[in-house]
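From the shared-data thread, chain only:
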Amino acid sequence: MNTAEYAYEKGIREVTLGFSTGKDSVAGLDMLLKAGMKVIPIYFYVVPGLRFIEDNIKMYEDRFGLRIVRLPHPMLYDYIDDSKWQTYDKTKTLLKNGNGKTSFRKLTNDYLDCMNIPGFEYDCNCMKMADSLNRRLLLGKIPDVDEVKKVIYVTKYMTNKDCFDYIKANNIPLTKDYEIWGRSWDGLKYDYSMGVKKFYPEDYETIKSYFPLIDAETIRYKLVKKYLYEQST
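Structure, as C-alpha cells:
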C-alpha cells in the first residue's frame, strides 16, 4: 500500500497538489488519482505566459483528463520585492507598491476561497527522503499523513529511480525539460534561463519583459565560476 492509498483508507478524498510537471509530482498525481482521490493540481509559475510551460501543462491536462490551475509562485513575489533583475525605473515602481511575502498554502487557500470550493483541507507534498540528508531528517520526523498540518507526503519513500520506473511502467510522458536540464524547469538561475534562451527564444523574450536585466545572470554566473576557479588554484 502506497501513501496515497493509505490516506484514502483514512478517509481523505480531496487533496490539492503542487504540480511542477516534474517526475515527483507526476508520479504523485497518478498515485492519488489511482487511489480514488479528487485532486486539484496547481502549477505555480515564476513567469506567466511561457509557451513551453503551457505546452507541458497541456500535455498533462490531456493525459490525466483534468484542469491544472495556474497560480503565481511565492518566489515570484520574492523576486518582485527584491527588485531582482529590474531596471531603476521599474525598481522605483515595485518598491512603491510592494507585494509582501506569501506561501504555497496561502495561495492555495486563497484560490479555494475565491472559487468557493469547499473541502480540500489536505495538501499533497512530493518531497522524498532520498532527495537529501536534510529531507531525510525532516521527513523522518513527520507522519506520512500529517493530520495536524493536513499534509500527505505521497512520494516520501520513493527514490528518483522509483519515480522514473513508476512513470515508465504507467506510460506517462515526461516533458522536454528532462532532455534540456535533466529535470523540470526551476526558475531563473543561469542554467535554466540560458536553456530557455537557447531552446525557447520567444519565451526568453517574455522573461525579459518581466525581468529586463535577466542577462546579468550570465555575468553573475561567469564571475562566480571565475572566483571558484581562482580559489581552487
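The chain has twelve helices and six strands.
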